[in-house]
Write a structure and sequence with these properties.
3 strands, AA/rel_permease1, transmembrane, mainly alpha, 3-stranded antiparallel sheet, globular, 3% strand, 26 helices, Amino acid/polyamine transporter I
């Protein structure tokens, strides 16, 4: 009986069944383990406050077993999501940015700016599509960063996405108001300035836009009725908007004059390459809309298929519309004569004298422009409260915004509060200040999502028992003793499998037949090819194994991603500021470009040399890490092309976000509460000299307090078997 107890105890400790261990040997292992644990605890105690603080900032979100479970209503199809994306993109860029960028930044080369912005957005959209299919939860870039990078980074991304949607909705409302005012010969503006008020304050509009604020409040009221009402309204407005685009393209190409691109009018690219790239940074505002698809993935019926398909369809349609409409606009009239406030309507009016009958038709089209503007308003107001809801649901934002109406299944409080804040922005800020500030938040979100794809793709797969590291959450009822026992059982199973394989191999060597040798080679090949994500690929083992073989899975990838970001920022800084602001000599400029480019490419190659997670069930970005890597590079370059004033405003907004996070979010984070609950109780197994196995449960107390210990034998002690 004694031998049986020792053998069973050895199994629970992960020791081999083929060897016999007595109580003394087992106690030696336990004492050694406890001694090592005490040494580690004493080592960590000196810097534990700093380590705990860093762990709080970088903790990952734990996903539930059923990622499809939600308190929202899953009812959106692929068509619904695609039209939401089209509605979010088509409208703002066509009626707001084309004239502004063409006249002030790029000239007719605004066409090239839209193409480059579309390519960069495509790389970012692929990253969003993978995350939206893999993690079908609302929150978009915030959620994707939370499950892969860390909590504070996710909060900052979510904080900036909130500002992105608020500014986007306010900017479109101002543009809608400006178009309607231009139809009535600016009578609305004149009446407001004469009878309401007018102010001359820097960075603010000259008069309060009551019409823009009113349309935002009305749109917020309709969206609070539920996702189906919002979807059908978006269908109607998207159909009207697409009909208007077809009209613009058909009659625009009929009235086009190629001499408007000639050297007499300044040429195709009067501002050069710098103007094209600066225009590209601003044109990113036009492609913000595809983010609404990922933000709505928690309300999609089949997000694994609908999110990638809707992203591709909407982005393709939007990019085509932007390129063609900007071509028509710069061919209708000379680019330097465009009216930035109402470019399309002004261009058609100036060419409408050729056929008087067109004037009436154009007037009707201009009236329908306002309907198309409401499409973008719906998209921004649709996504914004869902981002706020996701952050509040995780405890990082005020919990009142996580309340979902039981009838409409939408966060009504978040919709009404942030719809009102959006109306205030539209009331007092002008269009140019809003648009310039918007691009930096979009580019930053694209950058973090692309980096998150790389991190998550090469991240070692976590076991279900790990609740603190962003894996799939285990059952809440499982105790620490059960988790430890399961890990010990897995270790025993692994040991038995390795012993069985060794025995089989010895048997194969004994018989020396060709078929046995072939079978052994095939089994060894299978074991060799079955490498964990984040480890070095077998083909590169002979070359890089000497340098990288001792690294933990994912360690080299994490370091390479950091080097990728640093080298990318440095390379873009040299390209943007090297000649003009820094006035670098040619040799130093070239040397820095070569060095940072080599580091960037070497980081990509090191990441590519490691194994990836393969998931055949959901969409995956092709050519990882190259597509996300070049997306990061282009996004950072475009961010550095923005004005210094935009960076100052961005810094102020981030500082305000940090105050909210450290004042509220870090203390109410549900991941933090989950970690505290997991640390309340610690269990150990102790083997008594008699050979019985006892479970010791200790309540975790702050330092300096006495631990209360409760010892109880297991239900089935070894000596009773």
């Amino acid at each position: 009986m004694q031998g049986s107890s020792s053998g069973d105890s050895g199994c629970l400790l992960g020791l081999s069944d083929s060897e016999s261990y007595g109580p003394g040997v087992i106690c030696f292992y336990i004492i050694s383990f406890l001694n090592l644990d005490i040494k580690m605890a004493s080592c960590v105690s000196g810097c534990s406050p700093v380590m705990r603080f860093c762990q709080k900032l970088n903790r990952l979100k734990t996903l539930e077993d059923d990622v499809m479970a939600t308190s929202l209503k899953r009812c959106l199809s692929t068509v619904d999501l695609a039209l939401l994306g089209v509605g979010g993109m088509v409208g703002s860029g066509l009626y707001v940015l084309t004239g502004t960028v063409a006249k002030d930044t790029a000239g007719p080369a605004v066409v090239v700016s839209f193409i480059i912005a579309g390519v960069a957005s495509l790389m970012a959209a692929l990253c969003y599509a993978e995350f939206g299919a893999r993690v079908p939860k609302t929150g978009s870039a915030y959620m994707f960063t939370y499950v892969s990078v860390g909590e504070i980074w996710a909060f900052l991304i979510g904080w900036n996405v909130i500002l992105e949607y608020m500014i986007g909705g306010a900017a479109v409302a101002r543009a809608w108001s400006g178009y309607l005012d231009s139809i009535f010969n600016h009578r609305i503006q004149n009446f407001t300035e004469s009878h309401v008020m007018r102010w001359d304050v820097p960075f603010l509009a000259h008069y309060p836009d009551l019409l823009a604020a009113g349309i935002l409040l009305v749109a917020s009221f309709f969206i609070s009725f539920g996702v189906r009402v919002s979807s059908w309204l978006n269908h109607i407005f998207s159909a009207v908007s697409m009909a208007v685009i077809i009209f613009i393209l058909v009659f625009g190409f009929i009235l086009a004059d190629p001499t408007n691109w000639s050297a007499k009018e300044g040429g195709f690219a009067p501002f050069g390459l710098s103007g094209i790239m600066a225009g590209t940074a601003t044109c990113f505002y036009a492609f913000v809309g595809f983010d609404v698809i990922a933000a709505s993935s928690e309300e999609a019926s089949n997000p694994q298929r609908a999110v990638p398909a809707a992203t591709a369809i909407s982005l393709g349609l939007a990019a085509t519309a932007y390129v063609l409409v900007s071509t028509v606009l710069t061919l209708l009239v000379p680019w330097h004569t465009l009216d930035p406030n109402s470019a399309l309507s002004d261009a058609f009016f100036r060419r409408g004298y050729s056929w008087a009958g067109f004037i009436v038709a154009f007037t009707r089209v201009f009236l329908s422009f306002s309907l198309a503007m409401n499409t973008v308003l719906l998209s921004n107001l649709f996504s914004l409260p869902r981002i706020v809801y996701a952050m509040a649901e995780d405890g990082l934002f005020f919990s009142v915004f996580s309340r979902v109406n039981p009838v409409t299944k939408v966060p009504v409080i978040a919709i009404l509060v942030f719809g009102s804040l959006m109306a205030i922005l539209a009331l007092i800020f002008d269009l140019e200040a809003l648009v310039q500030f918007l691009s930096i938040g979009t580019l930053l979100a694209y950058t973090f999502v692309a980096a998150s794809v790389i991190v998550l793709r090469f991240q070692p797969e976590k076991s279900s028992g790990n609740t603190g590291g962003g894996g799939i959450k285990t059952d809440a009822s499982s105790t620490p003793s059960q988790n430890q026992s399961s890990q010990q059982m897995d270790l025993v199973a692994t040991t038995n499998e390795s012993q069985t394989f060794a025995q089989d191999a010895e048997g194969l060597k004994e018989y020396e037949s060709f078929s046995d040798k072939l079978q052994l080679v095939e089994r060894q090949k299978t074991v060799t090819e079955r490498r964990a994500p984040g480890t070095l690929k077998a083909r590169w083992e002979p070359y890089l194994g000497r340098f990288l073989g001792d690294c933990e899975p994912g360690e080299v990838v994490a370091f390479s991603v950091m080097a990728l970001m640093v080298s990318g920022v440095s390379l873009c800084a040299v390209l943007v500021f090297g000649n003009n602001q820094l006035h670098l000599p040619v040799w130093s400029f070239t040397l820095l470009l070569v060095v940072f480019s080599l580091v960037f490419l070497l980081s990509l190659c090191l990441i590519w040399a490691h194994e990836q997670q393969t998931n055949q069930k959901t969409f995956q970005v092709p050519l990882v890490p190259f597509v996300p890597g070049f997306s990061i590079l282009l996004n950072v370059f475009l961010m550095l092309k923005l004005s210094p004033l935009t960076w100052i405003r961005f810094t102020v907004w981030v500082a305000a976000g940090l105050l909210v996070y450290f004042g509220y979010g870090i203390w109410h984070s549900k991941e933090g509460l989950r970690e505290q609950q997991g640390q309340d109780v610690a269990a150990r197994y102790v083997v008594l000299p008699s050979g019985s196995l006892v479970e010791t449960v200790q309540n975790v107390q702050p330092e300096g307090h006495t631990h209360s210990t409760h010892t109880s034998p297991l239900e089935n002690p070894p000596n009773s078997r």
